[in-house]
Amino acid sequence: MAKRELDTRFSKFGTVSFTATTKVNDFIDHLEDGRVTGTRCAGCGTRFFPPRSDCFKCLDSEMEWFDVSGTGKLVTYSRLQYAPVGFEGDLPYCIALLDYGDYKVFGRIADSVAAEDIQVGMAMKTVVNRLENGQLNYVFEKAE
Amino acid sequence: MGKVAIIGVGQSPFVRQYPGSIRELAFEAFKDAMVDARLTTEQIDASVVCSAPEYDKQRSPAGVFAEYLGLNPQPTFYVETLCSSSSTGLRLAYSLVASGLHDVVAVLGFQKMSEISSSESQERMGRGADIQWESPFGTMMPAYYAMYAQAHMATYGTSPDDLALIRVKAATYGQINELAVYRKPVTFDMFTDPESRMTGPVASPLRVGDCCANADGSSCVIVASEEKARAWCDKPVWILGLGAATASVNLAGRDLFTGLAVAKEAARQAYGMAGVGPADIDVAEVHDCFTIAELMAYENLGFAQPGEGPELIRSKATYKEGEIPVNVDGGLLSKGHPIGATGGSQIRTIVLQLRGEAGDMQVRDPAIGLVHNIGGVGLYGNVTILGR
Fold first, then answer.
1. Cα within 13 Å of Cα(B207), Cβ side
2. What is the pLDDT of residues B279-330, one digit of tens each?
3. Distance CA A74, CA A69 (A)
4. CA triplet A121, B155, B256: central angle to 5 degrees?
5. What is the DSSP string of B210-244?
6. Residues 92 to 131 of A: which have CB under 8 A from any B CB?
7. Is the pLDDT confidence value at B76 over 80?
């Protein structure tokens, strides 16, 4: 019997990924297609971001994908000027949290947003971003 | 169910680089606590060993320590909740004693952080959060707490100056704590001087002066049944209340960003079990891994209303002579933060305070003390209330 190939798509997520295998690996394909996606439980309709393959409410594992779309409100952020090992080349960068109402999204603010323009409460949108090392993540840009 | 007491406490000096192995580091706190409790090793029925993994190479340190400390063949347990590991150890020891399974349990916390570099340590600590969805963005503990600071500032108008006042208080007491790693004076003016090390950038709005230092250290707390405590100890300190809580590891799963939900929940449980309220606390140790963490603790423990924490430090109410003295041993900001040892060190401080043995740091005649110990960025919360 041929050895089954391990699906390690998730190792493409972020500057350094610490996870290779997950049941929500399609998230990476969606990023490749320019989509940021979460999961919705087919049983109870609860939306999850980050996406999960299992619903803790109804203990069901039948999930549907949904697109993170529209704008979220900037809950809080921090600009790093010191980085953990492996991320030094990205400095300085901002990590942040957006509130979309039903769910929140943790990520980075796009480098194109000037530090002085960042305000807690501002409207932002989540967009896919390809990093210089070929990895994929998503970043927050100012909503038009 | 009988009462449960603390009959001995010990701590190694917290240092930048301990010149020995982890078992030797553990021995320092163990010996200190055993001398304090005037016990011999055969009187210890079980041990609980507490640390966060991946700083040193030893797997399953509990068994190694049991041999080195002369605690064979008694059972031992390893517990881990990151920075609150030894408060969780105390909770386990309490339940082992209260259940009647054991009479005397030693809780040993340790960490030797100097085995890896500072940026490696930030990466390890960052991986105490959500490694699948957050760590790939380059997270680290100061940045997570900085996000809470940013939210507190945006919501309540708290300023970097308020945070600086927390560090100045910590240094006031760190200078007189012989076991602290940082013993130099820190003045408010240093936070307005761009040349000062205190204003070095880390993760906005937190600066170098807002952050505690990594350290190597160990702590030991000896827990006993009421019967043994009354027979063996002149000044038992009673465990009156215990609270413990968890929260979503990913910040996206949380609702509160101006405080830690785990601290509020653990405090509610501990106050309820002890039958006391915030106004009854005479002295407190809170988890000031960052200045903002102490400020949030004031509010989450009910010493101040939400948003009014800064007023406590501005009015010096949390100084030794104030209404509610907090971290009068210098806190993590001065002592350093050897992850697994920290909770035990906080408990030790409160035990010494309640016994009236805190020396220059002694608060006037305290009867009830509180320990607030947080693991990760509010991933785990532990509140312990102790009384004479």
1. 21
2. 999 999 999 999 999 999 999 999 999 999 999 999 999 999 999 999 999 9
3. 15
4. 85
5. GBPPP-EEEEEEEEEEHHHHHHH-SS-EEEEEEEE
6. 93, 95-97, 103-108, 120-121
7. yes
Comparison of pLDDT for B378 and B122, the residue scoring more: B378
pLDDT band for position B124 (cuts 50, 70, 90): confident
Task: Give residue-wise pLDDT tens across range B135-180.
Answer: 999 999 999 999 999 999 999 999 999 999 999 999 999 999 999 9
Distance of alpha carbon B293 from alpha carbon B333, whole angstroms: 11
Residue A102: list chain B partners with CB under 8 A.
none
Domain ranges across chain B? 4-116+214-232
Contact indicator for B244, B269 with CB cutoff of 8 Å? yes
pLDDT, position B125: 81
Query: CB-based burial of residue B42 (10 Å sphere; 0-12 exposed, 13-18 middle, 19+ buried)?
Result: exposed
- CATH topology for the B4-116+214-232 domain: Peroxisomal Thiolase; Chain A, domain 1 (3.40.47)
Q: Which of B50, B83, B220, B289 is catalytic?
A: B83
Q: Which residue has the tokens 């939900």?
A: B261
Cα separation, A19 vs A26, whole angstroms: 14
Give the relative orientation of helices B261-274 and B291-300 as an angle to the nearest 10 degrees.
50
Please state, in angstroms and rounded to a whole number, the distance separating the CA atoms of residues B263 and B254: 14
- Taking a C-beta distance cutoff of 8 angstroms, is the pair B370, B384 a contact? yes
CB-nearest to B203 from A75, A79, A107 is A79
Measure CA B127 to chain center. Answer: 20
Give pLDDT tens digits for B176-224.
999 999 999 999 999 999 999 999 999 999 999 999 999 999 999 999 9
Give the whole-angstrom CA distance, residue A110 versus residue B127.
23
Q: How confident is the model at residue A35 (pLDDT cuts 50, 70, 90)?
A: very high
The rounded Cα B268 to chain-centroid distance in angstroms is 18
Contact flag B135-A81 (C-beta cutoff 8 Å) = no
| DSSP per position, A60-82 | ---EEEEE--S-EEEEEEEEESS
Strands B380-387, B104-112: parallel, antiparallel or unpaired by DSSP? unpaired
ipTM for this model: 0.96
> What pLDDT shows up at residue B219?
98
**Is B204 close to A86, i.e. CB distance below 8 A?**
no
Label residue B236 left, alpha or beta by phi (over 0 means left) and psi (-120 to 50 means alpha). Answer: beta
- Within B246-308, residue ranges assigned H as helices are 261-274, 291-300
* Structural tokens at position B147: 């996000």
B-chain residues near A88 (CB < 8 A): 119
- Based on the residue annotation, tell me whether B102 is a catalytic residue of this protein: no
Specify the DSSP class assigned to residue B113: G
Q: Which residue's structure tokens are 């680089």?
A: B17
